[in-house]
Design a protein that fits this description.
With about 200 residues, the protein is an alpha/beta fold. About 30% of the residues lie in helices and about 25% in strands. The protein has a single domain (about 5-195), classed as Vaccinia Virus protein VP39 (Rossmann fold), CATH 3.40.50.150. It binds S-adenosylmethionine (SAM). S-adenosylmethionine (SAM) binds near residues 17, 46, 66, 110 and 111.
């Protein structure tokens, strides 16, 4: 989709990928990987619900998204909730993302990574993730899974091998877990929970 199409989806109302609330996998990922609050980045943050959850958890959070309408909604939500620890900005990843201070302790991406089209885009994206992460920082993405998918609509679906080969070239995989986009809904889209750190 073009940047304009993304924006249009948010201008029209609630887009189909919107989780309604923060990403339901986040609490478990943070707990299981013992991720201590610090600086966080949400790539393709949409309306900012997960970024605001991270702020509530104690992170200072940046959310970046190409859709100005999504960022406008995220900013309103933050100001209505009185949350000051979130900075939302319009921009395209990876080109508009900058390293802040010592880097990000946690970087998340719900539903953008799986849209990358080829190995060049993946390499540019993961190079930037590695540049932005602190040495012990953790990256998490939720992506669509091929095995068990019932239809071909929606985002591109990834096989386990494709996920492994995308990440293992430059990152250290901490977790690759088969789950659902909405873990409590067995009918929701099959997904991969991918948690990784920069390879040493
Ligand atoms: C499938 S949606 C997921 C949104 C949000 N993470 C969620 O779970 O509701 C993908 C998001 O990535 C944004 N996006 C697309 N290309 C982008 C890019 N190059 N840089 C930053 N955001 C992008 C879109 O505007 C959209 O909000």
């Amino acid at each position: 989709m073009s940047d304009r199409d993304w924006d249009e989806s948010y201008r029209k109302g609630v887009p189909p990928w919107d989780p309604g609330d923060y990403d339901a996998h986040l609490p478990r990922v943070l707990a299981d990987h013992r991720i201590v609050p610090g600086r966080a980045l949400d790539i393709g943050c949409g309306e900012g619900k997960s970024a605001l959850y991270l702020a509530g958890y104690g992170f200072t959070c940046t959310g970046i998204d190409v859709a100005p309408s999504a960022i406008e909604k995220a900013k309103s939500r933050a100001s209505e909730s009185g949350i000051l620890a979130c900075d939302f900005r319009v921009g395209s990843f990876p080109e508009d993302a900058e390293r802040r201070d010592d880097g990000y302790d946690f970087i998340m991406d719900r539903g953008l990574f799986h849209l990358l089209k080829d190995s060049n885009e993946i390499a540019r994206y993961l190079d930037k993730v590695r540049e932005l992460l602190t040495p012990k920082g953790v990256y998490y993405t939720l992506m669509a899974k091929l095995e068990g998918a019932s239809d071909s609509s929606g985002p591109p679906k990834w096989s386990e091998n494709a996920v492994r080969s995308a990440f293992e070239a430059s990152m250290r995989l901490h977790e690759l877990r088969a789950d659902r986009f909405f873990p409590r809904d067995p009918d929701s889209m099959p997904g991969w929970v991918v948690v990784a750190g920069a390879a040493v």
